[in-house]
Every structure is written in C-alpha cells, then in structure tokens.
Design a protein that fits this description.
Elements (H helix, E strand, L loop, with lengths): L1 H49 L6 H15 L7 H19 L6 H6 L1 H24 L4 H14 L1 H11 L3 H21 L3 H5 L3 H11 L3 H8 L4 H15 L2 H11 L15 H4 L2 H14 L5 H24 L11 H25 L3
Helix pairs in contact: 1-2, 1-3, 1-16, 2-16, 3-15, 3-16, 5-6, 5-17, 6-7, 6-8, 6-17, 7-8, 7-13, 8-11, 8-17, 10-11, 10-12, 10-17, 11-12
Protein name: Sulfate exporter family transporter
Pfam family, one: Cons_hypoth698
Keywords: Cell membrane, Membrane, Transmembrane, Transmembrane helix
Length: 356
C-alpha cells in the first residue's frame, strides 16, 4: 500500500513542481508584456501622428526596459520570467523567423560574401585579442572579449569560457559590458546609414557583421526595411555558425595559454550550433521547398515579431547602465576599441565586395 501511494504521489509532486516553476515565471513575463504593450501603443501614436514609426516598438521596448531597470531593480519573483523572456521566447522568435526567409537568398549572396564573413570573424578575433593584450588584459579575458565581439556576444562568451578555463569574474565582466554595448550598437548603428551613405542592402550586411545577437539584428534592421532585415539576419546566421569551429579551435589552443589549467568542460552540440539556429534553418529550408505556404508563414512572422518585442523588453530589463562604473576602464576601452575595429573591417568588406 505504501509503495502504491508513493508511486501515485510522485506524479502529483512532479506536476506541482512544474506548476510552481511555471507560476514563478509569470510575474516577469507579465512585466515584459506590459512594457511591450506600452511600446506598441507609443508606436501606434507615432504612426497616427507622423504617418510612420520612426522609432519602432522593438527599440522603444529596449529603452523602456533600461529606464525601468535603472530606476527600479525587479525583485527575485520577476527574474525567472524576465530570463525566460530574454532567452526562450527570444530563441522561439528567431526560429519562427525562418518561415519568412528563403535559403536561396544565401546562395544569391554569393560565395564571395560568405568567404568575406568568415574572414571578417577571424580578422576581428585576432585584432580584438591584440588590442586587449596591448591594454594589459589577461589572455583568457582577451579571448572572451574577442570572441564575444566577433561572433555573437554573450553566447560566444558563454561557449568559449569553459573550454579555455576562464574565471567567473572575467566571464561576468565580459558579459556585463557586452549587454550594455550591445544595446548601444542597436540604437546607434542606424546613424551610419547617412554618415557612410549606406543602402538598405549594405546596411543589412553591416548589421549582420557587427550586431552581437541575432534578435538584436532585428531591432537594428526592422526600422530600416525588410531587405535590411533579411540580409542582416542571413549574414548574422553565417557569422553565428562560426561559433562551432572557433570553440573547437580554442579548445585546442587552451592547453598552451599562460597558466593553463584543466578546462571546465567541453560544450555539446547545442553550444556549437544553438537549437534555435537549427530551428531557423529547418523552417527556412521548408519555406525554400515551398512546404510553408504564405497562409502559414504570415501568422508565424507576426508571432515572431511580437515575441521579439517581448524579448527586447526583457533585454532592456537586464541592462543596468550603472554597470559601466563597475567594470574596469581597460575592459571598457578594449571592448569599445574592438567594436570600432569590427565596424571598420565590415565597412571595408562591403566596399571591397562592391555590395550595392
């Protein structure tokens, strides 16, 4: 009898635990949804008053999130939902975006652009590492900054850190500054359109080469136009796919770094190629084969757009501008210098390839 009762209670306990976990994410998700609603409302006011949303809901959500986070630090009950919105919902949004993009566009971009993306990532890693070391940063910290800058920000830092045996404080400092600088890039990159005389196509390539995270590419390109969004996302995905080879490369280099010690572990397949990227590619493949009709692609694209705004709200809530005062001046200078260098390399690539 006792065994039977225990076996019956176990599923109930598991269900109760799941329900508690789901409930714990609710306050944070509701906070992100509230910010999303305000952002959407402000965009609607722009459209009604000006005829065009000069600042999209995506960007508005980031700014509101940052303002809220700076004025008020959400308590522990909000954090699980904010983290869920910033990661899981964000990844779902990117995966669903694949339904609106044909992989034929990658082929149309040509082998020269793909080769240029690979060369840009490798050159940015080498140059960023050199800048960091010249400023006196430790070798592992320099690698984290270089990979985060050249590939995909926090994801690259998190993937590379275990294989090089990076210390927690170095990882935290690199991620903290990347979070702030990543938002600044999203907000400031469109200013280069008039300054550098960029076309929609050129700007898409630039955004894909320089913006840290895939969803942030959306925030940086959606206000510019559909072509920029599609090109930027595709370029960014090729850049993200460089993460696997780079992690493997540094796993081989790690034993030869100064003060080498055993790595904390080796990343699995989902670290080398994140699951949401595989989902994006799967949907894009189905779309390219004509297996995702317009009647299905349209609502999926709308859901992706909504989830992206919610994720941007969560991203803003995770950024405290005061973190700049807590990171070292050398780290600030190294990351900023690396980003400027990446922008310069990317612009040179655009000109060299004659992208119109």
């Amino acid at each position: 009898m006792t065994t039977k009762a225990s076996s019956e209670e176990a599923p109930r306990d598991a269900a109760a635990g799941t329900a508690t976990e789901q409930t714990s994410t609710l306050p944070g998700i509701l906070l992100c949804l509230a910010i999303t609603a305000v952002a959407a409302g402000l965009q609607a006011i722009e459209e009604h008053s000006l005829g065009h949303p000069y600042v999209e809901a995506l960007v508005i959500a980031i700014l509101i999130g940052i303002a809220v986070r700076t004025a008020w630090n959400p308590g522990a009950r909000f954090r699980p939902g904010i983290a869920f919105s910033a990661k899981q919902l964000l990844e779902v949004a990117v995966a669903l975006l694949g339904a609106s993009i044909s992989l034929q566009a990658i082929v149309a971009s040509g082998g020269a652009l793909i080769a240029g993306i690979v060369a840009t990532v490798l050159a940015a890693i080498a140059a960023s590492y050199g800048i960091c070391r010249a400023l006196g940063l430790p070798a592992r910290m320099a690698i984290l900054v270089a990979c985060g800058n050249a590939i995909c920000g926090n994801s690259a830092i998190a993937a590379v850190a275990p294989v090089i045996g990076a210390e927690a404080r170095d990882v935290a400092a690199a991620i903290a500054f990347t979070a702030v600088l990543g938002v600044l890039v999203v907000l400031g990159l469109p200013l280069l359109i008039p300054l550098a005389g960029l076309s929609e196509h050129q700007y898409g390539v630039l955004a894909g080469l320089t913006v840290y995270a895939v969803p942030q590419v959306l925030a940086a390109t959606v206000p510019v136009g559909l072509l920029s969004t599609q090109v930027g996302t595709l370029v960014k995905l090729v850049r993200v796919l460089m993460l696997g080879p780079v992690v493997v490369l540094f796993s081989l280099i790690a034993p030869h770094l100064p003060g080498a010690r055993p790595a904390a572990g080796r990343p699995g397949l989902t670290k080398l190629v994140p699951g949401f990227i595989l989902g994006f590619l799967a949907l894009a493949t189905l779309r390219s084969l004509g297996l995702v009709p317009d009647a299905v692609a349209w609502p999926l694209t709308k859901v992706a757009a909504l989830l992206t705004v919610v994720s941007m709200a969560a991203l803003g809530l995770g950024v405290d501008v005061r973190v700049l005062a807590r990171v070292g001046g050398r780290v600030t200078l190294a990351v900023t210098g690396s980003l400027v260098l990446l922008l310069a390399i990317s612009l040179m690539l655009i000109r060299a390839l004659g992208i119109a």
